[in-house]
Amino acid sequence: MTDHDSVDHSSPCGSSGAGCAGGAPGPAPAAGTPGLGIFDKELLDRCISCGFCLPSCPTYALTGEETSSPRGRITLMRALETGDLAPDDPTLAEESSFCLGCRACETVCPAGVEYGQLLEQWRDHQWGGRDRPWIARVLMMLVSRPGLLRLQGLVRRHARGPGGKAGPRDATPAPSHPPNAPEQPVSLMLGCVERGLYPQVSRAVRRLCPEVDVPASQGCCGALHAHNGDSATGEKLARTLGGQLPGTILTTAGGCAAHLAHHLGRDRVRELSEYLDEREHRPAGQVTVDGRRARAALQDSCHLRNGLGVTRPPRELIAEVADYVELPGAGQCCGAAGTYALLRPADSRKVLDPKLTEVETADVDYVVALNPGCLRQLEQGLRRVRSRARAIHLAEFLALAAEPEPGRPDSGPGAADPREL
Ligand code: SF4
Ligand code: SF4
């Protein structure tokens, strides 16, 4: 897999294909035009080529090339669907990979184009079988094998809290509930990446929301598969997980929330900030640095913001316990984008770098993330530029406010590390 600079864009669509005339958008195929069945034609035909989406697209901002914009990519999809571009055309391979899948284009589209769905269908075709990047293949294998997930058992038990073994909380489908618990059971999804890399996030949720159950047996939600060319397995895994987690599924990963909501229904799924908001949870305490209230910014989760429209709750929760600072690009992708940071590290860094500059300019102590991928991306970026700001997940941040390290007056970056709490 390459980064974008290494691809020849000598022609406007990087190809001699007839479907990509100049830099201008191609016309929508007439209704009834025969297609190859790669895409849902109704979704593809919705685009009216107005171009409203171009300014919102991070990859278009990087290159200024029509083919790297949402409209340009839809033109490529149409050319693929009608056969005007050969399936092995290099521009198709490049642009289906260069797209972050952030879905920022959906939020400004007047025609209701579901770009995220189109991208999944495109990658199903483009990345089928051996054409899938090997890193994505390895990750998908790791998260979809229950046996391999069980190898994370030590970490998972740590995430599920003291005792480690399945207790009454794990009993399904009739777990016991504390007196003030909601009627509907709430099951915490541990997340296959998060339980391995950031088990402290689930521990923090348990402290914030003691009413939640943590079922012992839970697999991957399938978002990784859906975003990497295997949407059928992505749907299957989502439905299996829906059967394993009774009631409302509570997740600390915006990307997983959007994927599960798509397949299980919006009512089944809540991301942490919206769950706390709906329950009118008021976080206790405050996060301090050098005896003052901490300054904290937010990095939105793209799929939470652009797919589910959740933006207010995390900001309000942070503002309860710290001085909230809105970064100009808080709503723009950080470049993590699932496997993107691994598949296209140079492009991922280009997307992230302006955000790191914003963090330094804002002089914040913390940048709060709502997704393990964003958290990792911010951690690595802030470390690279030797920033004093620390990336932290919302759950940890709220738990840190409620329970600063005993004997330490400060909870800031130079003091307690919430991961040790
Ligand atoms: S805003 Fe929507 S309809 Fe307009 S070009 Fe972009 S995807 Fe197509
Ligand atoms: S998903 Fe993001 S990167 Fe891809 S076309 Fe839409 S705005 Fe651009």
From TrEMBL:
Pfam annotation, one family: Fer4_8
Domain 4Fe-4S ferredoxin-type: residue ranges: 37-67, 88-113
Entry-linked PANTHER family: GLYCOLATE OXIDASE IRON-SULFUR SUBUNIT
Source organism: Streptomyces marokkonensis
Cofactor note: Binds 2 [4Fe-4S] clusters.
Region Disordered, residue ranges: 159-185
Protein name: Glycolate oxidase iron-sulfur subunit
Reported cofactor(s): [4Fe-4S] cluster
EC id: 1.1.99.14
